[in-house]
Design goal:
The protein has 400 residues and is mainly α. The chain has helices at 9-41, 45-69, 75-95, 100-127, 134-163, 165-186, 198-205, 208-228, 231-239, 247-292, 297-326, 330-333, 336-359, 361-382. The chain has 14 helices and no strands. α3 packs antiparallel against α4, α4 runs antiparallel to α5 (134-163) and α8 runs antiparallel to α11. It is globular. 57% of the residues are buried. The chain crosses the membrane at residues 12-39, 45-66, 78-96, 102-125, 137-156, 168-190, 210-235, 241-263, 275-293, 299-318, 330-355, 361-381.
Length: 400
């Protein structure tokens, strides 16, 4: 299929945003409905929580694997296939009454196609804009996922409480079908460049310079989640804030992640390496404020907002740097930042939990601060890395 010479980027980016928003809602909806799911499926709350873990593992491992297996296909076909699979997999628990075991398997599949969608969406987004706006194009997809946590999950939780958790997932299926129908009309053909075989892409995508930058993302998000995962007990024990009063802090964090991911695109275009350093420093300073002034509700609120703002602002820059450093391996490398983020989330939550078991909730913030310092060092050390000679980000359709 001949690529469209001058596609209109706005509808393409709008559809990609909608797809990432719906997928993000499906991923995180379990958090708000975990008690309803556990009761209905007759499993424990930790077992219901494993549904989130299954999604994360599917994304972290299955996403890059599916991207590797589909590197030779046009990105339009990959995106449509990912959306169709997403709809079917969510229909299993939503409409077909799947039991717990099937639900877990479905969540792994959902995470895998989500990772595939992210990688293909990044390539499609950057293909329809001039190269100097690629960071902002990537930020559109990242913002979709951030907005799903800030807005989609709270509203989805309210819906689930009103009509049941399966009803909330029915809404996800309907929204997914709507996005799929729009995607078939709007998305342009974005073929993989000739000569970009899967093994050749893997060699560039997993080059040491790419892995080093991915480590920055893992450390940054590990620092964030080591503290944010246990924000509620921190507020209760240190700040003396509990019950409904916790909600504004959670909303502030969600809003900050959405603002940061969107604004981060412009900084990625200006200087992605510098943006990673500034973002890691911002997270570090915010965590130190949280640690030293945890008894002040206002300063804690400002610190929580800043953690989300600076942390998520690094998302577009990580994606920008990875794609640039991978060169010909960019289509496969586009799936790796999401895996790095999920690895950081898992490690951060684990490290914070170990710290709490050792010395209380304040120790978790201290551990987060130490990890954040490591993220600053890693961002600084990798800032001078350059793409290999004669490699570059794939040319955009808008430049053709």
């Amino acid at each position: 299929m001949t690529p469209t010479p001058t596609p209109n980027p706005r509808p393409v980016l709008a559809v990609l945003f909608a797809g990432s928003f719906v997928m993000g809602c499906a991923e995180m909806l379990v958090v708000g409905l975990i008690d309803l799911i556990a009761a209905d499926l007759a499993v424990s709350v930790p077992a219901a929580g494993a549904l989130l873990t299954a999604n994360a593992l599917g994304l972290a491992i299955g996403g890059p694997l599916l991207t590797f297996l589909t590197t030779r296909f046009d990105r339009r076909r990959v995106l449509l296939a990912a959306l169709a699979t997403f709809v079917v997999a969510n229909a299993l628990p939503a409409m077909l009454g799947a039991d717990y075991a099937v639900f877990v398997v479905a969540r792994v599949a959902i995470g895998a196609v989500q990772g595939l969608f992210i990688a293909a969406a990044m390539m499609s987004a950057t293909a329809v804009v001039p190269s100097e706006r690629s960071g902002r194009a990537m930020a559109v997809i990242i913002t979709g996922f951030a907005m799903s946590s800030a807005l989609g999950v709270p509203f989805g939780t309210l819906l689930g409480q009103a009509v049941g958790w399966r009803g909330a997932f029915v809404a996800v299926v309907i929204a997914g079908l709507f996005v799929l129908s729009l995607a078939t009309i709007v998305l342009p053909s974005v073929p993989t460049p000739a000569g970009s075989g899967a093994l050749g892409q893997a060699r560039h995508a997993f080059a040491p310079r790419v892995l080093a930058v991915l480590a920055v993302s893992t450390l940054t998000f590990a620092a964030m989640l080591a503290a944010i995962t246990y924000l509620v007990p921190f507020l209760g024990e240190v700040t003396d804030v509990a019950g409904p009063a916790v909600t504004p802090y959670l909303l502030a964090y969600g809003a900050a992640t959405a603002i940061g991911s969107f604004a981060g695109g412009r900084f990625a275009d200006a200087n992605a390496a510098r943006a990673l350093i500034v973002g890691a420093i911002g997270v570090t300073v915010s965590l130190v404020v949280l640690l030293l002034f945890g008894s002040s509700p206002w300063l804690v609120g400002a610190a929580v907002f800043s953690i989300g703002l600076f942390g998520m602002a690094t998302g577009p820059s990580i994606q920008h740097r990875v794609v640039a450093l991978a060169g010909p391996g960019a289509p496969l490398a586009s799936s790796l930042p999401a895996s790095a983020v999920n690895a950081g989330i898992a490690f951060g939550a684990f490290a914070g939990g170990v710290a709490i078991d050792t010395g209380g909730v304040q120790l978790a913030v201290l551990a987060a601060s130490v990890i954040a310092v490591a993220a600053v060092a890693a961002a600084w050390a990798t800032s001078a890395l350059k793409p290999a000679a004669a490699t570059s980000v794939p040319a955009s359709l808008a430049d053709r």
